Fold:
Amino acid sequence: MTLGEMIKAKREASGMTQQELASRLFVSRQTVCRWENGTRCPDIIMLKRIAIVLDIPLDELVSGDVASEYVPDKESSLDISCVKVMLTGLMIVLIGTFLFVADDGNGEVSAFCFILGILIFVIGLFIPWNKKSVPIKNEDLLQRKCPKCGKTHDFDYPKCPYCYHEYNGRD
Structure:
């Protein structure tokens, strides 16, 4: 199912017309028609707004899969912090080497940098390679609660997408 077909199916399942969806998203009816026909595609911010208005998860809207059926791959992923530590160690070793060459083989600072860089590199080897990433929750995103209907939605809406309450400077 294409994105346009998914938008149309969810809109019709919600009992909305193209005009109603367009007014909730602050776009024209023709824009919604173009999305559904597949001649245009909404950007990622608009996709998020469409998902909120149609009351479906964003990944379900985009992929066409039901979110509860999705099972993430169990592939191991590299945690970048260990790579950063090892690269920092290598950079300090290089600085120590350049100081050693620039100082004609004399210098305690270059030896200190060289040993410190090797030590930091070895510490980077012992940082676990597989760390579980923390998923972003809806509570972590900047949201606001409408004082009129009480529903929460993204902060960047000029009006509540549910009851059309217009925010002023005090909300």
The chain has three domains: 3-67, 80-125, 140-171. Helices lie at 3-13, 18-25, 29-37, 44-53, 58-63, 80-102, 108-125. The first strand starts at residue 143 and ends at 145.
